[in-house]
Amino acid sequence: MAARSIPFLILTLCYPIWHVFQLQWAGSDPHMVVESLQNYRISIWMVWFIWAAVAVWLKWTKRHYRFFKSTYGYIVIACIIYGYYHSKATGLTGSPSPFSDSYTASFFAALLDIAVLFALTAFLQAAVWWFTQRQHRK
Q1: Segment holding 102, helix H or strand E
Q2: CA distances for 70 relative to 10, 58, 83, 104, angstroms
Q3: Spatial contact of 61 and 37, defined as CB atoms under 8 Å apart
């Protein structure tokens, strides 16, 4: 079943990639850039939800963590791309920020998403590990 789910999971990556193209096509219209950036962030979370569910299922049924590692890799890459476009959007819109430049604000925005997604994924991974152990059932 794991080999059959790979094309579906690759297909789920098309959704955030589509939003990256929309960010490129938004040009210099601040409203379009902000809307596209929000849609990209939502797509990151949607794909993470699907990948985390598949990773939990694979660990529960097949007893391997390989897909959890892929999920961590996806999180890092997607959030780095988010930080890059966040920096461009902040520079374009001139949004007020407590930081001196758009790079620092974007770095912390991406770092926050990475931290939250890593924490949630690690929690799911630990929970699946715990519930697949026999000693907790006694």
Answers
A1: helix 102-132
A2: 12, 12, 20, 27
A3: no
pTM of whole model > 0.70? yes
- Contact between 75 and 118 (Cβ < 8 Å): yes
Q: Could you read off the pLDDT of 81-123 as tens digits, one per residue?
A: 999 988 888 877 766 666 667 778 888 889 999 999 999 999 9
Angstrom distance (rounded) from CA 124 to CA 61:
15
pLDDT at position 67 is 85
**Of all residues in the chain, what percent carry a pLDDT higher than 70?**
86
Q: How far apart are CA 100 and CA 35, in angstroms?
A: 24
The alpha carbon torsion through 101, 103, 104, 106 (nearest 10 deg) reads: 120
Distance CA 126, CA 54 (A): 15
* Contact (CB, 8 A) for 39 and 22: yes
Q: Which residue has the tokens 């985390």?
A: 52
CA angle 7, 10, 13 (to 5 degrees): 155
CA–CA distance, 108 with 130 (Å, rounded to integer): 32
